Amino acid sequence: MRGTGGLRIVDETCATTVPGLYAAGDAATRELICGGFTGGGSHNAAWAMTSGTLAGQGAADYARQAADGRELSSAGTVGLRSRSRRAFEPAALARAVQDEVFPYELNYFREASRLGGALARLDAAWRDVSEAGAAGAAELLRTRESAAMLATARWMYRSALARQESRGMHRRDDFPEQDHRQRHYLTSGGLDEVWTAVRPHAEAAYAEAAE
Length: 211
Prior knowledge:
2 strands, 7 helices, 2 domains, two-stranded antiparallel ribbon, single chain, Methane Monooxygenase Hydroxylase, Chain G, domain 1
């Protein structure tokens, strides 16, 4: 999630909207400290260290407060469910996602028709792997990584299509100018169906973002 995207954090402990899940570094959004543009040093390096400390402390506090004896169940789907069809192939999926996000003409020089084409292929890949059988135990980590790559790519391109302007690190060939009417955040989510939503710029404060 290198850049300005990442998991939405809702308070000063780097908690997310999922109870018990804390984000740090590149996985956590940095919009609150650097807006629509970022890099690799300065406040970004400080964010990596600070968010790691805050998230670690927040997660530890949450674990201490959690009740003992809770029944746990699997929340994962893609690559984890037994199916009669072919087994999940994480290496093949990772390559397929890279083919859609590595080319500059898709991910850097953005334009609606190119983004839409890549997104259609990524959506088709999600439907395909959703029907695949569980991967082998030895490939469990790679399975989760490749599924996360696919989910992130779909969120990224849905958001890129929704922001019809050029702002910060986001550049649209078909919308080369910044639009003052789009001075807001975009949140995306969903798995089988990806959605995007507008959050006003005034929600920069943690307390407001958590509501």
